[in-house]
Specification:
Elements lengths: L18 E6 L7 E6 L24 E4 L2 E4 L12
Antiparallel strand pairs: 1-2, 3-4
């Protein structure tokens, strides 16, 4: 995916392990495609003009939505490990 300027996303992250690539498809207006690895960067409150679907491959996500904190799923536990 090519890099586009997206509001609120720095051109370069401070932590070299953090990265994000964004793309919009002309065939599917109103949808954002993105692939990111962000472990240390914290985004300022912002909005998106398009609809996005995310998948967490590792770790977790935390964000606020209308003054309510929302946390992403806990990491998958193999063999029914206890919490």
């Amino acid at each position: 995916m090519g890099r586009e300027n997206v509001q609120g996303v720095p051109e370069q992250f401070i932590d070299e392990k953090d990265s994000a690539r964004f793309r919009h498809l002309a065939q599917v207006p109103g949808v954002e495609l993105y692939h990111a690895h962000i472990s240390r960067y914290a985004f300022e409150p912002h909005t998106h003009e398009a609809f996005g679907i995310g998948a967490i491959e590792a770790g977790a996500e935390r964000f606020s939505l209308s003054r309510h904190a929302v946390r992403g799923p806990r990491p998958f536990r193999r063999n029914h490990e206890s919490r």
